[in-house]
Amino acid sequence: MLRKISLAQVGLVLGGLITVVGFVAYFADYATLNLAGFFYGIPLLLGGLALKAAEIKPIPFSEPTTPEVLSKREQQATPTQNQVRSDVTRYRYGQSAHLIDAIERLKLGGNDEEHPQLQALREGVVDGSYALILEFYSPFVPLSVWEEKQSKIAQFFGPNLRVQVTQPETDCVDLIMIADTES
């Protein structure tokens, strides 16, 4: 639940509220409340603004996860799949995009404008195994490049994973991370 709360919003609301109390206390001649409002409220407000400027919103699920898939996730999901799902479905700060470090290390796109952008994710079952499907908007990196790097992507995301790359529509690529239950 806390993953779904924006720290920037918390900082802005609390900082704004405490700052307003400080201003009211200043005009009402309450020195102690005035100092508390200025010394705590303004830094919180500025911190909230700074976080808001560096905030990346959580990636949504493109379709709800079925009970069958949840059962497969509990039985078969690898730590990497769980970590990726957890990371992209919460607020992030100080990065330009979700999974940007992985995208840069895999050399998918030349610069920030050309990097694929994670748009959504979904969970499913592929060949009887749990699969985490990352849906990228990738107008500058063609499917052929993704396919060339498929083994490198599987190696990057770690053991007990198979990776498939598909193109459901133009400029979109699905990266399917399948739990390898045969290993």
Automatic annotation (TrEMBL):
Organism of derivation: Limnospira maxima CS-328
Record-linked PANTHER family: ACCLIMATION OF PHOTOSYNTHESIS TO ENVIRONMENT, PTHR35551
Protein name: DUF2854 domain-containing protein
Region annotation (Disordered) ranges: 65-84
Keywords associated with the record: Membrane, Transmembrane, Transmembrane helix
TM regions (residue ranges): 7-27, 33-51
